[in-house]
């Protein structure tokens, strides 16, 4: 009787161990933020009453109506700061000072940026690139008010010097000849180089933020996730190309 009970106990223990080994890896993978990416980014354009998802590296023109649609894969906090082609910076997300629920992101949550009304904004400013900085943090932080570029004041914002010719959007000739679309391969989501400057309001956080990202196609958009060695907070960019 005792031998039978001992044999039954060993069998039960082995069965439980095998069950743990079979189930545990799947649970760990589902909790790994790297497996699904951090945020999926789509760029939408409005034309009259219709809305469509457009290529992220398309070259737009002043007057085009756009918005970003983001889908979070993790819980955390999102901050979005835009440095326009004029040099002026604007906080797009959250839309007001402070932190909290207004920029809290949750898994499978959809949001539009800018976070004002339905998120639409009109492309404007000198020809060049708007650089949108996206910072993802596990904890809330306080973004200070935007600072004007050196030597610039509200009266001469519109008179900013034009961007150098090497910073102007350029059409990919092969794509233009094939489809008639003006596409600049350098536009769209991209990692922030280690030595690249950031807007003043992000300087305190960018120094310690990881910059290594992996970009993957995600339907009509791009999914962003950190490199295996990267930890939150994470910062990356989206370059929006436009001509007048």
Briefly summarize what is shown:
The protein is an alpha+beta fold. The protein has one domain.
Describe this structure in words.
- By secondary structure, this protein is α+β, with helices and mostly antiparallel strands.
- The protein has one domain.
- The strands form 2 sheets. Strands 1, 2, 4, 8, 9, 12 and 13 form a 7-stranded antiparallel beta sheet that branches.
- It is globular and about 45 Å long.
Can you lay out the helices and strands and say which pair or pack?
Elements: H1 2-31, H2 33-36, E1 39-47, E2 50-54, E3 60-61, E4 65-72, E5 76-83, E6 89-93, E7 104-105, E8 110-113, E9 121-122, E10 128-137, H3 173-179, E11 188-191, H4 203-206, E12 213-218, E13 221-226, E14 234-243
Parallel strand pairs: 3-14
Antiparallel strand pairs: 1-2, 1-4, 1-13, 4-8, 4-9, 5-6, 5-7, 5-10, 10-14, 11-14, 12-13
Which labels suit this protein?
244 residues, alpha+beta, 7-stranded mixed sheet, 33% strand, globular, disordered N terminus
Mean pLDDT: 76
**How far apart are the first and last residues' alpha carbons, in Å?**
89 Å
Helix content: 10-25%
- Note poorly predicted spans: 1-35, 148-165
Q: What percentage of the residues does DSSP assign to strands (E)?
A: 25-35%
Q: What's the total count of β strands?
A: 14
What class would the helix/strand composition place it in?
A: alpha+beta
The outline comes out as globular
The main β sheet shows up as: 7 strands, antiparallel
Individual helix count? 4
What's the number of domains? 1
Helix and strand string, N-terminal first?
A: HHEEEEEEEEEEHEHEEE
Rg to the nearest angstrom? 23 Å
């Amino acid at each position: 009787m005792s031998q039978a009970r001992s044999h039954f106990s060993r069998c039960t223990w082995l069965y439980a161990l095998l069950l743990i080994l079979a189930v545990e890896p799947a649970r760990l993978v589902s909790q790994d933020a790297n497996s699904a990416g951090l945020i999926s980014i789509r760029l939408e354009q409005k034309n009259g009453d219709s809305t469509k998802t457009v290529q992220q590296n398309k070259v737009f023109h002043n007057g085009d109506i756009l918005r970003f649609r983001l889908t979070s894969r993790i819980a955390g906090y999102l901050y979005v700061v835009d440095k326009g082609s004029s040099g002026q910076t604007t906080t797009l997300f959250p839309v007001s000072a402070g932190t909290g629920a207004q920029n809290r992101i949750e898994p499978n949550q959809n949001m539009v940026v800018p976070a004002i009304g339905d998120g639409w904004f009109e492309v404007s400013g000198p020809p060049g690139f708007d650089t949108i900085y996206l910072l993802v943090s596990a904890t809330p932080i306080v973004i200070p008010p935007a600072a004007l570029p050196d030597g610039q004041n509200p009266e001469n914002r519109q008179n900013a010097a034009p961007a150098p010719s090497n910073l102007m959007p350029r059409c990919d000739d092969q794509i233009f000849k094939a489809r008639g679309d003006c596409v600049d391969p350098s536009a769209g989501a991209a990692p922030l180089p280690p030595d690249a400057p950031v807007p003043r309001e992000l300087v305190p956080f960018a120094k310690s933020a990881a910059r290594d990202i992996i970009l993957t196609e995600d339907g009509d958009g791009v999914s962003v996730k950190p490199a295996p060695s990267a930890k939150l907070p994470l910062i990356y960019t989206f370059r929006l190309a436009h001509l007048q």
